Amino acid sequence: MSLSLHRQDTAASGSAVVENPRRLVDTIFRIREFGIIAVLVGFVAITTALQHRFLEAQNVKFILLDATIFALLALGETMVVVSREVDLSVGSVLGISAYISANLFGQFHGIPIPLVFAVGIAIGVVCGTVNGAITAVGRVPSLVVTLATLYIIRGIDVLIVGGGQVVVSSLPDSFVAIGQSTLAGIPDVTIAVAVLIAAGAYYLRSFRSGRELYAIGSNPEAARLAGIPTAKRIFTSFVLSGAIAGLAGVVWAAYYGTVDSTAGTGYELTVVSAVVVGGVAIFGGSGSVVGAAFGALLLETINTALYVLGISAFWDQAIAGFLLICAITLDHGITLTLTSALRRRSPRGA
Amino acid sequence: MAQHDTSPDPTVQPPPPPGLPVLSVHGLQKTFGAVRALVDGSIDLFAGEAHALLGENGAGKSTLVKILAGVHRPDAGAIYIDGRRTVLDDPGAARDAGIAIIYQEPNLFPDLSIAENVFMGRQPLRRGRRIDTSAMHDKVAAVLDRLGVRLDPGRISRGLSIADQQIVEIAKALTLDARVIVMDEPTAALSAIEVERLFRVVRSLRAGGAAVLFISHRLEEVYTLCQRVTVMRDGAHVVTKPINGITSDEIVRAMVGRDVVNREAGTRRQGGQIVLDVQRLSREGDFADVTFQIRAGEIVSLAGLVGAGRSEVACTIFGIERRDAGSVAVDGVPLKSGSPDVAMAAGVGFVPEDRRQQGLVMSMSVAGNIALASLARLRRHGLIRSSVERTFAADWAARLQLKYGRLTDEVSTLSGGNQQKIVLAKWLSRAPKLLIVDEPTRGIDIGTKAEVHRLLLDLADSGVAVLMISSELPEVLRLSDRILVMREGRLVAEFSGAEATEEGVVAAATGQHVVASA
Q1: Closest by alpha carbon to B288, among A337, A340, A342, A349?
Q2: Which residues of A touch B194 (CB under 8 A)?
Q3: Cα A51 from chain centroid?
Q4: Is the reported ipTM for this assembly greater than 0.85?
Q5: CATH tag for A16-345 (out of 3.40.50, 2.60.20, 1.10.3470, 2.40.128)
Q6: Rounded mean pLDDT of A319-331?
Q7: Inter-chain contact B511–A5, Cβ cutoff 8 Å?
Q8: Contacts of B38 (CB under 8 A, 6+ apart)
Q9: What is the pTM (predicted TM-score) of this model?
Q10: In chain B, which residue's Cα lies nearest the Cα of A287?
Q11: Domain interval for residue B503
């Protein structure tokens, strides 16, 4: 009885106390989704003001295409990161998938394109299965496992490719067209990936197994006590991340046309950056694939903007690093603010 | 839940339970490394009974609970459900067998909503196996309503107070529709009113045919709620009896295997000079206009319901939280707002409510934790020699009769009571002028509790001022020279230790009567 009195009292007499944190909290929730878009819009505006050609259709298409591959990789990476793991092998998986799948056209003339996509994805699934099995069953930290497979897969790639490469002329026109065709100025690939990301977002939000990934990342011990098959979920997230990286490899081959053993080198760091800049907590539990996709778009936009403005590529990496620190600091700050705001909002306090 | 009746429960004692037990375990054994945690875990639970499981920390209760939860597999022994032998492979299997567990330490997903915490892994589904979020929120709202708390099911659980976290755990168990509900010290973090609500819920669960296994260190609760009691000691079953066939002295003797003399508060001391002077301390939304003083050698308690602002006052005095107005002085030296360093330098020690998260570095050694607040003193040329640290820690461990394996063991391996002793040792080794203790005996067995009480009394005798926060009234009444009662963020009453009664303090804390304010 007196507890409820307490609550009413607080609400009535101290409305400033109750209302402000509530608005603050709501705003912060929105910032988490939209803050990155605000930064993106600001960056585009400044760059366009300085260099009008920045928003030309051709330039936008290039930005979108480059960002699309990272956004696709970020989709898989997000599923891994929300469950408090990390997949550093995505760049190598993309590389080996790109070469083997593109090379199929030279080996088997007239091979159907869907089959090539299937092979690329299958390669990714194999790599993801290895990562997932060692991490989930062997209980080795994924940072170590995927760092190792990053080098191992790249090594296998180099063994297969040797000094050779696949060139555009060996690829069928219909395959190359995948990376070129557009709908209302937006590349088809970008639209397809956007649909995939939307599906991924829906899966993570509305299905038990999706929510369980967040639960595992938020508190692994509690997840186990809740009867969640944590090993199975983590294994699946690595297989998915691998499959997506394999798919990204085929798209990469279609887009760039020329594939050698260095394809996708260093992509893992860009992808992890994009995921974190996009608001996914590096220690799991929160964040969205949509945010991660915008993170990829932001990094790619900055990359191109600096190029367009004639600024050294060195600054590109420096700025990406700076953004990363901002994102992590902001994330930490938001968590603290949120915690204290929720404490105050909670009628009984801490 | 199936039953939603809030009608008064039958207060008649049920007849001795007939028929087959819902859950029966016999001769359970479990060994961890060299530690025999469970030697003979045996208990029968019948439908419709609340059965108390008592024992000191380390008696094997938690291991038994974890076996019922499917977390641990027993090395030997058998589990029968409805007379059929059952193996509980994992937490999912226990859940499917109709066993719900409310753990002593709330273990939530901080990033997820309250509703998701309650239903994780078994969310209600709609077409296409998608989660039915609105149904989930409605169900959780209904359960929270039944528990009489107003919490938004959609709010993320980060930042919830321990009491609210415990409520979420209870809500989780209630939505399981379980036939066996194990409650491992569910009341430790709850205020008196919330405990009463929980008891009402337990009684309606019983009426609905569920069996409740109730673990608590508070014997009054056991006598209020339970029909039968089982006592364990050193991993083995000692006795099972109807509650009205056993006295509390007999229970305590069965638990500790010896007689425990509850030390009565000695002669009330005349306070010395003023050590802590708090003037018109305020913090928006938490408490306002709090003024009091503590003299050397005094034990002063802050009593009140959970959420009355007691812990917040303590945190603000120590400087963990900033104050909005007012002043705090120790020995005449004013403390800066939001600065624990200054408070520590002025001779303030703080034993927080949540010892696992705030009081200890769980992954650090016993020695490391004891020495943590004294590193500046142990330092030679900026370096800490581990031999010095160990000697220092061993000395304090001996003074507090700490039970541990080696000084290098992680504190997470120790029992709750011994962990609390480490937190106390950490601060006592700094020879504080003022020691603030928040729920010093929460989740601690009776034997260790008595030791902590004696420690606090000795401390006061040696001239230290003690500010204690406790939700356990018998403890408050036994130890305190003065009792300050808070309600809704304000000091509403003051009692001297001699004149205070349980009824008077409760009345002031709940505002049921107008009490003459000091």
Answers
A1: A349
A2: 3
A3: 29
A4: no
A5: 1.10.3470
A6: 75
A7: yes
A8: B28, B29, B30, B60, B63, B64, B67, B74, B235
A9: 0.71
A10: B111
A11: 261-347+432-518
